Amino acid sequence: GLLEFSNSGGGMVKRLHQGRASESAVLAAELALDGFGGPPAVLEGRFGFLNTFCRDADVSRLTADLGSVWCTLTTTLKCYACHSTAHVAVTAALEIKAAHGITGDDIESIRVAGSEKLVSHHAITDPQDLAMAQYSAPFSVALAFYRDPRDPQVFCDASLSNPAIRALCRRVSLELYADGPWDNKLASRVTVRLKNGREIVQDAQYFPGMPQQPLSTGQLWNKFELLTTSYAPGRARQIFDCMGSWKRSKMSANWSWGCPSARYVSRDAPERRCRRENSTNAAWAGMLCTERDFEGGSSQSVCAQRFMKFSL
Known about the structure:
Blueprint: H1 5-8, H2 17-33, H3 49-53, H4 87-100, E1 107-114, H5 116-121, H6 130-135, H7 137-144, H8 157-160, H9 163-170, E2 172-176, E3 188-194, E4 199-204, H10 217-227, H11 235-245, H12 248-254, H13 276-288, E5 294-295, E6 298-299
Parallel strand pairs: 1-2
Antiparallel strand pairs: 1-3, 3-4, 5-6
């Protein structure tokens, strides 16, 4: 999607970007499995995707390593409700806070070394709205020293207006990580200068949820549970367990409960009718998403479920 929200605000649109893509991918796979057809040359055809949106496309890349390389194995699940470029820095901040027992009140200034994109796009020290705050690396790092960023509820208007968090945010500077690993653009170095003059440096390359540091089933459940607080007791766990097995034979029965709106796709498969919205929005938006928007204490709603992909 477009990045103008990072310049002039109005970032609610960013909450739909990748979540909608994830929703569409799951829906497309299930439609195809049900026999729903489309143009056979939709990608490479004269009026297909490549000729419409790309120039000099290499069609061979569509099938390169097909059946041997699985891109889903390199999928990253975000663990904080902020932009992915700040995740390693936030992880380093949490490590410093835990190891040295400090809080934001002990800090004089912070330097974060990272990628060129981190410096050019995310050096926002005075965010004007919540979406811009989530897009801001200084705000996200400052927040980590006062709150637990693993809880999406802390990315809220109360934190945005908190004087201490905003003051520390203004004292966070970004710089290029000149001697960082060349093959990892997310790697960061966080240097904290305390008010007593002491300096603490923490280098980090990964954050929980990256392929190099995958989340355990327990960590996934903790994440999912935080994203489904509006659900009745036990219901979130039922969805999570069903997604964990993801057996087609069970989906027909299990997804019939609680489906907010059915999409009638196949007349000869009535048992499959009432599960499209729920499986796409609840399961995938919950499992793949990392952030919720809390404005006035309530989450925003997308596609008939109370889940969003913020992927800022």
